[in-house]
């Protein structure tokens, strides 16, 4: 395979599968959180570090010229192509033995997301995308929802301790004002992937980081969803707001929650 992006993508799929197997082996039994708190509702498990280390080592061995950035260790290598990993997205769910968590690995070419893998092993689901080659769930093509009436939509919103009190409720009230059904599931990467596959019609999080969304940005683009300019608005170097939506309700949702899609 001569295309360097496709070559890396195929190699990374096996790495993520091995990382997912490790995470499942280390997974806590159902119950209270088996983790430490970095901040309010911001959890860290032993698995986060182990999974990130496995992916970093394997990617580094195969592609030593590539950059690498993880949620836990930050940027450990530099390169024009950069891997960005969230070793366990949805750690609060993982720490309690719940199923809604994933490993998210994205590939950036400069400032452009070009490939992504989101593996949710407890759900037996793998989302994949390469820019210009479509988006897939377990090998089947996916597309954003065709919903055009916000009153029939399902919208998820993520919570962050970095957002001032009252904002979450304000935005949820705006979503309810559209007649939409709100929910919150604890994994931004899975939520964005579900917008890409049409299981839900929008996702909003007021403060989220690149490692949470790098893989999903490619999925959303390839699946035909609309996304706010997360990277332009500061997401490359710090936290920023993201709004992703099915194309036919994107403008109405954007106006309601006050997040521009332009």
Automatic annotation (TrEMBL):
This is Inositol-1-monophosphatase. Its EC number is 3.1.3.25. The gene is suhB_1. It is an enzyme of class 3 (hydrolase). GO terms for biological process: inositol metabolic process; phosphatidylinositol phosphate biosynthetic process; signal transduction. One of its GO terms (molecular function) is metal ion binding. InterPro entries: Inositol_monoP_metal-BS, Inositol_monophosphatase-like, Inositol_monophosphatase_CS. Pfam families: Inositol_P (PF00459). Mg(2+) binds at residues 71, 86, 88-89, 212. Keywords: Hydrolase, Magnesium, Metal-binding. Its cofactor is Mg(2+). It comes from the Bacteria. Belongs to the inositol monophosphatase superfamily. The keyword Metal-binding applies.
């Amino acid at each position: 395979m001569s295309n360097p992006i496709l070559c890396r993508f195929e190699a990374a799929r096996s790495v993520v599968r091995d990382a997912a197997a490790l995470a499942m082996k280390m997974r806590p039994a159902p119950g209270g959180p088996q983790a430490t708190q970095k901040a309010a509702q911001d959890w860290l498990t032993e698995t986060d570090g182990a999974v990130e280390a496995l992916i970093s080592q394997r990617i580094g061995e195969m592609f030593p010229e590539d950059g690498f950035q993880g949620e836990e260790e930050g940027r450990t290598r530099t390169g024009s192509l950069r891997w960005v990993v969230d070793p366990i997205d949805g750690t609060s769910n993982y720490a309690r033995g719940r199923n809604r968590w994933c490993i998210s690995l994205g590939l950036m070419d400069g400032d452009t997301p070009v490939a992504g893998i989101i593996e949710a092993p407890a759900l037996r689901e793998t989302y994949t995308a390469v820019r210009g080659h479509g988006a897939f769930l377990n090998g089947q093509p996916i597309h954003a929802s065709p919903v055009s009436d916000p009153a029939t939509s399902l919208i998820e919103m993520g919570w962050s301790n970095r957002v001032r009190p009252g904002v979450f409720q304000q935005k949820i009230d705006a979503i309810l004002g559209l007649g939409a059904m709100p929910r919150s599931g604890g994994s931004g990467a899975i939520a964005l992937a579900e917008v890409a596959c049409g299981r839900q019609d929008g996702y909003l999080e007021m403060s989220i980081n690149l490692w949470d969304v790098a893989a999903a940005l490619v999925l959303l683009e390839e699946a035909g969803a609309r996304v706010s300019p997360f990277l332009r608005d500061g997401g490359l170097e710090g936290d920023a707001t993201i709004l992703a939506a099915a194309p036919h309700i994107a403008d109405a949702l954007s106006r309601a929650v006050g997040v521009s899609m332009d």
